[in-house]
């Protein structure tokens, strides 16, 4: 199941918006408050049952969304009337296909949790999966799932080929961002997952927040596939559902951000990934048809921006160009620098030598040692002395 198109009217901060998605990776980007998270919440709502995360726009009596899937019979239209945070609207329909929707919110912290024993598998009922469409994939059972799979993989029977393939890729996940970090063993006494690092062996919960984010997402998907498709097991590369990830760059160093996207594309080759980001590093790594840039029109309404991208997308753009033209930043320098630069230019126009020299000295202290602008300012000062 894949999302083909989405039409939103009067939900959240979006007055009216139409989107088309490809069957692979779709990364939604744009300034804060543009409606990126609302888009994910609307998609999740179509698979949910119970309390909803979405609210109508304040300017309309009711909101509406229509989602078309690659299976035409699964198109859905929903009305959203609630606005107040004290209202708890219920979506009663739910979808049996909720097992094809995996949602990762921005709450991705993995805290230490002691296992009292090796847990058995969880069977996800339809209503459980529909509720998780909104609440998101859980992190608290990842450790139990991995420990179960690792321990029972040592027996000759009762461990399927699908389990083996998923466990093999799960073990590799611990090294996916850094080859010097590796899964080492499961402690036979405490049942803790132990990780080897250049600084020694540690509990996997002691890894950085960013590293655990990657583990949470990838192992969370593997775990859910085995729990949700228990009766008809599938491996990671057979999943053809939808993966929603809000702020995919959250907690991650820019070097890891693009690596996570690459890993998801490589591992879950048949899945549709719909994510949001604020990261120019991620956008630089994408193909042009994987980027959905959001902006505002002259009336303040959310629209899809036409970036007029060429064959290589944003791969030739600088981080500064992406931040300004795609993410909507008015400037990529500090207010202090902007004010000092403006004072320098004003002094040059007025030929005020003392002010020129004073502001040049400040700029010379602020700029990067190898800044081209530093060299240009120096040429201007040399010309002034002549």
Task: Summarize the entry for a quick read.
By secondary structure, the protein is of the alpha/beta class. The protein has eleven helices and 15 strands.
CATH architecture annotation of the largest domain = 3-Layer(aba) Sandwich
Can you tell me the CATH superfamily of the largest domain?
Answer: P-loop containing nucleotide triphosphate hydrolases
Radius of gyration (CA) equals 25 Å
Average pLDDT, rounded to a whole number, is 89
| CATH third-tier fold name of the largest domain | Rossmann fold
Structural class: alpha/beta
Given the C-alpha coordinates, what overall shape results? globular
Mind summarizing the main beta sheet? 6 strands, mixed
Number of helices: 11
What's the count of strands?
A: 15
Low-confidence stretches: none
End-to-end Cα distance, whole Å, is 71 Å
For the record, the CATH class of the largest domain is Alpha Beta
Strand content bin? 15-25%
Helical amount among residues, as a percent range?
25-40%
Integer tally of domains: 2
For the largest sheet, list the strands in their spatial order: 8-12-13-3-14-15
What is the H/E string? Answer: EEEHEEEEEHHHEEEHEHEHEEHHHH
Question: How would you describe this protein?
Answer:
This protein has 386 residues and is α/β, with parallel strands linked by helices. It has 2 domains: 3-325, Rossmann fold (3-Layer(aba) Sandwich); 335-385, no CATH class. 35% of the residues lie in helices and 19% in strands. It has a 6-stranded mixed sheet with strand order 8-12-13-3-14-15, sandwiched between helices. A 4-stranded antiparallel sheet has the order 2-1-5-6, covered by helices on one side. The model has no long low-confidence stretch (mean pLDDT 89).
């Amino acid at each position: 199941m894949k999302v083909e198109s989405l039409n939103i009217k009067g939900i959240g901060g979006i007055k009216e918006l139409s989107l088309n998605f490809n069957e692979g990776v779709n990364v939604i980007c744009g300034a804060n408050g543009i409606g990126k998270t609302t888009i994910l919440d609307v998609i999740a709502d179509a698979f949910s049952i119970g309390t909803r995360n979405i609210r109508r726009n304040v300017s309309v009596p009711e909101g509406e969304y229509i989602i078309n899937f690659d299976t035409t019979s699964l198109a859905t239209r929903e009305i959203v009337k609630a606005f107040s945070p004290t209202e708890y609207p219920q979506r009663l329909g739910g979808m049996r296909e909720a097992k094809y929707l995996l949602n990762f919110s921005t709450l991705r912290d993995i805290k230490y949790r002691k296992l009292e024993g090796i847990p058995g598998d969880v069977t996800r009922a339809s209503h459980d999966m529909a509720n998780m469409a909104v609440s998101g994939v859980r992190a608290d059972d990842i450790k139990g799932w991995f420990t179960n799979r690792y321990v029972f993989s040592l027996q000759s029977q009762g461990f399927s080929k699908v389990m083996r393939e998923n466990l093999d890729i799960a073990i590799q996940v611990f090294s996916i961002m850094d080859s010097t970090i590796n899964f080492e063993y499961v402690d036979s006494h405490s049942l803790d997952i132990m990780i080897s690092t250049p600084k020694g062996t540690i509990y996997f919960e002691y890894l950085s927040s960013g590293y655990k984010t990657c583990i949470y997402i990838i192992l969370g998907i593997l775990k859910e596939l085995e729990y949700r498709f228990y009766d008809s097991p599938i491996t990671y590369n057979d999943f053809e559902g939808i993966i929603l990830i809000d702020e995919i760059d959250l907690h991650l160093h820019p070097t890891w951000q693009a690596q996570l996207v690459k890993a998801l594309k490589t591992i879950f080759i048949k899945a549709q990934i719909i994510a949001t980001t604020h990261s120019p590093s991620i956008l630089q790594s994408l193909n042009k048809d994987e980027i959905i840039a959001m902006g505002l029109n002259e009336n303040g309404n959310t629209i899809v921006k036409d970036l007029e991208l060429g064959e290589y997308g944003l791969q030739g753009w600088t981080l500064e160009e992406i931040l300004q033209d795609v993410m909507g930043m008015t400037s990529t320098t500090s207010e202090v620098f902007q004010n000092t630069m403006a004072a320098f230019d004003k002094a040059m126009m007025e030929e005020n030598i003392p002010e020129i020299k004073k502001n040049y000295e400040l700029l010379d202290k602020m700029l990067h040692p190898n800044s081209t602008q530093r060299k240009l300012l120096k040429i201007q000062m040399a010309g002034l002395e002549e």
